[in-house]
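Revision sheet: structure tokens.
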Amino acid sequence: MSSLNTRRWLSYAVLACAISLTLGVTPQEQTAPSRHIVLISLDGLPSWALDDPFLPMPTLRALAARGAIAAGMRPVNPTVTWPNHTTLITGVTPAKHGVLFNGVLKRDPGVPPRVEPWLPRDEMVRVKTLYDVVHERGMTTAQVDWVAIMAAPTVTWEFPERPAPDGVVAQEMVKAGILTQTELETFATRNIVWRDHIWTQAAAHIIREHRPNLTMYHLLNLDSTQHRYGPRTPAAMTTMAHLDAQVAEIVAAVERAGLTSRTTFFIVSDHGFKLVKRQIRLNAAFMKEGLLKATDGKIVQSDAYVVPEGGSAIVYLTSPDPSGELLARARKAIAGVEGIDAVIETATTESTACRSRARTIRWAFFSSRRRTGTRLRLRWARTS
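Predicted:
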């Protein structure tokens, strides 16, 4: 998969450095012949997948056999797609790169916070990325369904998660007969299996036609399948086998472009999945305490709200609380909720992690696996 050292845990920072060194991303000028990286993210692929000899993934096994493999990668917290991918491509944690959600949290007084994904990269990512550095060195970059990358000026070719109908690569694909204009214009409404297929075709097309030095390519189907049906299910295992076939198409595209001897593949995943027996729904506790109000099943007023983040949760006080009354009521609401074992408080004058101008108080709670089969971490934020 790469020339990485094989060891039990591989940090995202080490991975980003390894990709840079493979491309020759140094202050010296690039020398011919050019080198190429194909970074493939299989969202939700578990670390145990290659340990199962009865899971048919011949392409991934062949790449691993010819290169190197790490038994696992240590994800960041929150362990969700966008923070992990941004750490992978920057080498720093969410506390530094600023991506804490699958988008940017938008906060208005008295209503629940919301996550907005469709914002320019420069409004999300606070640090330099690998593709920024590659571009600075005069090399070319490409992204297919990568995350936190919208309108990034250092991406040369792209076919995004939601492709623009008039995009350069999108129109090349229409002319090539890969998809129709109607399919392009309704892309976001199609099922995830078909979209993964088209993203694969887009990555293969870009490699064949444009030969970028760095290609970042991300597939979502396995993540969606495991969220719906759970890990280690027949649906999840079938999707893993299908992912292998899609990786094979990218390997074939590199071969057809005549770039095999100059290309290094990095196959990564952002997180795995754990089956849980129970969920902790703290917004229900807040509603019982009167911190949330709903009409016809829709929340119309909020003084405190929980934003879940894949095994983590961040709790915001959404109304001014100069006296501390709302914070006290929120504490009371969750007191005794099954699964909360410990409380850790950290006060800061401004939350860099949550990207808020307000004074922030953060709390962390960890649930007991013995009682619930889940682990929950919460952070608190309140407006001053």
